[in-house]
Write a structure and sequence with these properties.
alpha/beta, TIM Barrel, 9 helices, about 40% helix, globular
């Protein structure tokens, strides 16, 4: 199994411990989000790959051109997480739009897929993504009202532990109906721990709980769904 989105540098106990724990649980591959530290972690662990970018909260300080040397590292597989966050508004929206647009263009130039963060900004996010000429992953999918549009565009949708929450019925409905070839799973560690671990810091090993829940929604065996998710991740991120 693969955890397609984790912040390993922020997991309590450290990245090395989290990677070993994940492997023992059957999670052999992890995509970690960040910049320099993510590249270093990917170089140190054969089961870890890096996704590099400026989060919308960091938009004011975002130096997109500084990503170029990182994106050329051998184990960097995507640009992300990038996008718009109009819920917290931790950066001015104009700065968010600038950083997002520049990183979409950088991904187009390098041919790397995009990992997208969008919160309370779906309309503008989807409009700006019309510029993308590479694969798109909607991280921590939270746009069930845009499901049909995402499917039409061929975007992959990645579900995190919040899909297991009892009140997340709209997400659960979406997760049950996403076409098989567009489905991914993640932890977003250390955030969004799934039931039955909700309220604790999340860890990459816990993607197995989300996998089991998704398999139940879709009426398939967890092992079968793990193979589907692995294949989808390998395709979009160019993993071996």
């Amino acid at each position: 199994m693969i955890d397609t989105h984790a912040h390993l540098e922020s997991v309590p106990g450290g990245a090395d411990e989290a990677v070993a724990e994940a492997a023992a649980a059957g999670v052999e591959r992890i995509l970690t989000i960040g910049r320099e530290q993510a590249v270093e972690l990917a170089a140190r662990h054969p089961g870890v790959w890096a996704v590099i970018g400026w989060h919308p909260h960091e938009a004011v300080e975002a130096d997109v051109q500084a990503l170029r040397p990182l994106l050329s590292a051998p184990r960097v597989v995507a640009v992300g997480e990038i996008g718009l966050d109009f819920y917290r508004d931790n950066a001015p929206r104009a700065a968010q739009r600038r950083a997002f647009a520049e990183q979409v263009e950088l991904a187009n130039e390098t041919g790397l897929p995009l990992v997208i963060h969008t919160r309370d900004a779906d309309q503008e996010t989807f409009t700006m993504l019309e510029r993308a000429r590479v694969g798109v992953v909607l991280h921590c999918f939270s746009s069930p009202q845009r499901l049909d549009q995402a499917v039409e565009r061929g975007y992959l949708m990645s579900f995190a532990g919040n899909v297991t929450y009892p009140k997340a019925t709209d997400l659960q409905e979406a997760a049950g109906s996403v076409p098989e070839h567009l489905l991914l799973a993640e932890t977003d560690s250390p955030y969004l721990a799934p039931v039955p671990l909700r309220g604790r810091p999340n860890r990459p090993a816990n993607v197995m709980h989300t996998l089991t829940f998704l398999a139940g929604l879709r009426g398939v065996a967890a092992a079968e769904l793990a193979r589907v998710i692995e294949a989808n991740a390998a395709r979009v991120f160019g993993l071996p």
